[in-house]
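Lecture 7, part 2: worked example. A protein chain together with dinuclear copper ion.
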Amino acid sequence: MTGRFPSQCRKIRPSFGRRLRNIEMSKFRHRSLHLLGVLLTGLLFTLLAACSKANPQSTFDTLGPVSRNQATILYVIAGVGTFVFILVFGILAYTVIRYRRRSPDDPDPPQIHGNDKLEVAWTIAPAIVLIAVAVPTLQGIFYAANPPTEARLTVEATGHQWWFEFKYPELGVVTANEMHIPEDEAVIVELRSVDVNHSFWVPKLAGKVDMIPNNENRLWLQADESGMYYGQCAEFCGESHAKMRFRVVVEPRAEFDAWVARQQAAAAVPGDPLAKEGHDLFMSNQARCFACHTIAGTQKARGTVGPNLTHFASRQHLAAGNLENTQENLRMWLEDPDAVKPGNLMSRDAAVYNGQGEPLTEPQISALVAFLRSLE
Ligand code: CUA
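Predicted complex, written out as structure tokens:
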């Protein structure tokens, strides 16, 4: 049938209102296109930035067998997806251009219903594509879920708002925000939470796994090289979720064993007078630090609400991996913890305030800093 677009229509002069509307529409379209361009450019830059190998949390810079396996799955899926995308859109573009209506008088093309060969083909082809994606994915799921039998070290990682606790049950070591593991050895990490859902993620070593209250999850990881790896909570868990970080310190077996031996020792009683003053304040009802923190080897400091501080000075970072463990940063943290990690319990429960509801004085902070820095 012809004449669906009568050529005389175009000869009718549009009304003034309509022309105005057309101008408005084209302006709107122009602005929309401009906005879309800006958005796409922004997205492209964001994506490209994420690909940078220098990025300490890049999942593309794989440094362990688990992350490598997971990246391979990503590459397979991205490759198959790109192939399908190019094929489908190539055929679509070819068809749209090749069979377009060239003149208003063109007749409708023949209307065809059903083609057995084509239908069989486009059932089988996606099935093959799905199998190509499913095989490595399923293999990867089983690989990540089953630690190698030679894995000898288990770490219990517990999520707290907002820090990570690491226990080594076989070794009697408890630490926070800095997980040490030996190089080139499979390590099992048991994941728990004491409050809300968190997620344990060391991008270069293994994909994220949730830490769920009352439901233990497990993962395993292994690092090829010694060094420090960045970890991050990857499940929104409240105000300071973005500041819930940790580090994985990978070292040769001998260094790891030496670290374990140091961590197993009880804290030494400080000899320095200022540190001793800090110790006494820590244990006093004025500062009440002992109520939330454990310092092994002391009678009083047995709290488990906050990080175990027995060997606090041996850690490279403080405040859940947010600050380097330096004297100035420790002072800043004690002066105003809320400014470093908003909403944390130490601010809320006023542990940094003395019995009269007043903030700790400068001399008190100096004493606490001296004490904490003596806990090697
Ligand atoms: Cu813990 Cu987000």
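Residues 159, 162, 198, 233, 235-237, 241, 244 surround dinuclear copper ion (CB under 6 Å). The chain is about 40% helix and 15% strand. Keep this in mind for problem set question 3.
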